[in-house]
Structure formats: C-alpha cells, structure tokens
Design a protein that fits this description.
Layout (H helix, E strand, L loop, with lengths): L19 H24 L4 H8 L3 H29 L1 H21 L3 H29 L2 H20 L1 H11 L8 H4 L1 H15 L13 H24 L3 H23 L13 H31 L4 H29 L2 H20 L7 H24 L7 H29 L4 H23 L6
C-alpha cells in the first residue's frame, strides 16, 4: 500500500469525517473551481487572433492578456494559502470563486485591451486565493484511501483543464454562442461559477482556523515582489531581446527571495513555516514539481504553435488532436492510484519516462502525415497522468493540517514558476532554431525530454514509503 494511504502520525485530531455522499459532493464542488481556473490559463491562447482583431490590440497588449493571469497567479499563491490557514479555507475558496466569476464576466464584456488585461490580472489573483484551499481542504477532510483517490481526482481535473483547454476554446469560438465569439470562453465561467458558489456552503465542510497568529506582511511583500521580479523578465525577456532591465530584475529576484527565506526563519509568524522544508517529501517534491512543469507548459505551447503555424491547422482542428493527448492522460490518471500503491515514488519516474518516450515518437512523426503524431501524443498524455495524478499526494501526505493550505500554496507556486521558466527556456531553443516551424518544434522536444529525465532522477530522493 502506498504511503499516501496511511494516516500521518502526529496529525491533530479531526472533526468527524463527512459521509461518503457528502465527501463526493464536496470534492466535485472543489474540483470544479480547479478545472475552470486551470482551463482559463490555457484557453485564451486559441482566442488571441480574434481578440487582437476585435479589440484592435497590439502585440504587447496581447502578451499581457496571457501574462497578466499567470503573473498574478504565480505571485499570489503562497499568500493565498496562508490566508486560508488564517481566515478559513472554505471562506477563502468561496471568496476566490466569487471574484473569479465576476472577473470572468468583466473579461467577457471588456470593451478595450486595457480592461481585458486588468480583468485577467484579477482572475489570476482570484485563482491564487482559490487553488491552495482545494489541496488544503482535501488534505484535512479525507483520510486513508479516500485521500489518495481525492488527490488523484485533483490531478485529473488539473490535467484535463490544461489538456482540453485548446479544444474547448476552439469549440466555443467555432460555435459562436449568441454571437459572443471569443468572449464566450470567459462568459461560460459565469453560470458555472454561480452554481458552484451556491453549493459551497452546502457541501464543503468548514475546518478550524489557525489561531493565535497573524499574516506575515513582510514575508508577503518580499515573496510577491521576488516572484514578480522572477516571472516578469521570463515572460517579457525573449520578446524584447533580453534588455538590461530583465537581467537586473532576475538579480533582484534572487535578493528578494533570499530575504524572504531569511524572514521566514527569523519571523514570529512566518508565511511559510520553515518546518515544512524539514519534511523530505515536501522539500524534494516541491523541487520535483518545479522541474516537471518546465516540461509541461512549454510542451503545450510549442505543440500548439507547430500545429497551427507549422501544419496550418485551425484552432479547432489542432484542439481535436489534443484529444489523443487527453485520452492518454485520462486513462493513466484513473489507474494512477493503483499503480502508486505498488510502485510508490517510482510512479513519478515511470510517468516521466513514458512522456519522454512519447516525445521520441513525435520526433519521428514530424514531417509525416498528421495522424502519425497520435501515438506519441497518447504516450505524452499518459506520462503526464502518471506524474500529475499522484504528485500532490506524494508531496503533501506528511504535512499537518495546521500548515496544509500554506504547503499547497508553495507547491502550486513551484508549478506556476516552473510553467513560466519552462516556456522561457524552451522558447530560447524554439525561436533560436533555424529553418521551419517543424524544425523549431523538433529541437524544442530535446529540453522537454531532459526535464523529464531530471524529474525521474529527483523521484529517487523521495521517501520510499
């Protein structure tokens, strides 16, 4: 049996566990929030040409439509997790969902590029409030085998939101619901958000707050500025030719994040408890999550560019090819708990190896008929499912309830920073390649496979049980 299925020694006593029916209802409500926020991170890519034409947005504005969400999300996750510890996870989840729904309406009605960018930033802030609470609530409410299954469902929702973002976006734009065009990719969140919000209090159990402490304002400012200073040049640097300010910003981020680490050791009410990093599973697992997402987000982006610019497919047509990747992801995710029970930490190494094997098949398929890509995409999806579905459980299983949401915030932050860094690093290879888009996509697969190899190596340092 996997160590994720065993109650953690020293965990504080829990409230009475909810009934199985109530637990399922709570999980569905929580995962709906995860799905729509993850979906919105990826779905906007397919709508960029229509947004640019309709709002007469320039290249810089379009960059910020994409970057504003990710920057706000990545820089706010740790603070969002801590606020959940202090103010109550259910309350912060509901607040994040309400703000995200309102911001989605603002995106869908935006009359100008500036309004859309502002609303996207608010969406990212709301997602940063929402997402850490989900992992914290799951870790606090579920026990034993139910917790392992709930974490698997979380990974499935996260992956499906990313995998099917392009397909869902292309289908909505093609359908042109009520003449809304690209705006439908945001407006669809409004009814979903309202219904989900109405169910939060009925289904999601409240949990005790962390008492006798306060929000670490110094730590909040340092980590927010440090992550902005890190992510901003990674988003803008390649497009601008890496001017001097981007390097200065990266240097400043190192100083700010070092100051944050020092403040957490010396402060009386740290934003991130230093004790978290004394737990091997969390320490190694957070680094592994960062490295793995270097391979994930970059693969999605440059595959989409290859399909649309290199093969001339429409957004919907390229989205349909993502079904192959999604099928592999779904099949692997649904079996991940059983496989993890037998393999433990090695499931992460197996998933990374399967994804790398899929990339090798894609290397061979480039230049052939489009259908040749399908076997490689299925394997890449399966590898992602084997890694993402059990990852949260393997990393967070030893974290006490007191720090669950903060730990989830750190884990999610590692993944978002990995997304931005991966896109930047692989982008240097992709855009630096000579020749056609197909050649650029081919060489971009090599760093993706390298990141998978490092992921498999890091998995060996996780606890055996």
């Amino acid at each position: 049996m996997s160590h994720t299925a065993t109650p953690v020694a020293g965990r504080p006593p829990r409230e009475a566990a909810p009934s199985p029916t109530a637990s399922i209802g709570a999980l569905l409500v929580l995962l709906t929030g995860v799905f729509i926020t993850t979906l919105d991170f990826f779905i906007v890519n397919v709508a960029i040409p229509d947004i640019q034409s309709d709002l007469r947005a320039g290249a810089t504005a379009i960059q910020w439509v994409v970057a504003g969400f990710g920057l706000a999300l990545g820089s706010g996750l740790i603070t969002g997790g801590r606020l959940g510890d202090l103010a109550g996870r259910r309350r912060m989840y509901a607040l994040g969902l309400a703000v995200f729904t309102a911001a989605s309406l603002a995106c869908g009605l935006a009359p100008s590029p500036g309004t859309l960018i502002g609303a996207r930033v608010v969406q990212g802030i709301a997602a940063a409030l929402l997402m850490p609470q989900v992992l914290g609530i799951i870790n606090g409410v579920f026990t034993g085998e139910a917790r392992a299954k709930a974490f698997t469902a979380y990974g499935l929702a996260l992956g499906l939101g990313g995998v099917f973002g392009q397909l869902i976006g292309g289908a909505l734009i093609q359908a042109d619901l009520f003449g809304t065009g690209w705006r439908s990719i945001f407006l669809i969140n409004v009814p979903v958000g309202i219904v989900t919000l109405a169910l939060v209090r009925r289904t999601v159990p409240s949990q005790p707050r962390t008492t006798g402490t306060r929000l670490d304002v110094t730590g909040t400012v340092l980590v927010t500025l440090g992550l902005i200073a890190l992510v901003l040049p990674l988003i803008e640097g390649r497009r601008l030719g890496w001017p001097a300010w981007t390097w200065a910003s990266l240097a400043a981020s190192a100083v700010l994040l070092a100051g944050f680490a020092l403040s957490q050791r010396c402060g009386s009410a740290p934003l991130v408890a230093p004790a978290l990093f004394r737990e091997p599973a969390f320490r190694v697992g957070s680094g592994l999550a960062l490295v793995y997402t270097l391979a994930m987000a970059s693969f999605f982006l440059y595959l989409a560019l290859y399909l649309q610019q290199g093969r001339g497919l429409s957004a919907l047509e390229s989205g349909l090819l993502f079904v192959a990747l999604g099928a592999g992801y779904f099949a692997a995710s649904t079996r991940a708990t059983a496989v993890a029970a037998r393999l433990g930490r090695q499931i992460l190494a197996l998933g990374a190896a399967v994804q790398a094997a899929g990339c090798l098949l894609l290397l061979d398929a480039i230049g052939h008929a489009i259908g040749w890509l399908i076997p490689g995409l299925v394997l890449v999806g399966a590898g992602m499912g084997l890694v993402l579905a059990p990852l949260s459980a393997l990393v967070l299983s030893g974290v006490t309830d007191r720090h669950a949401a903060s730990a989830a915030g750190v884990l999610s932050t590692a993944q978002q920073v990995g997304n931005a860094l991966g896109v930047a690093l692989v982008g240097i290879v992709f855009y630096g390649a000579s020749g056609e888009v197909a050649d650029a996509f081919r060489v971009s697969l090599f760093p993706v496979m390298a990141f998978c190899g490092v992921t498999a190596a890091l998995a060996q340092f996780l606890p055996r049980r």
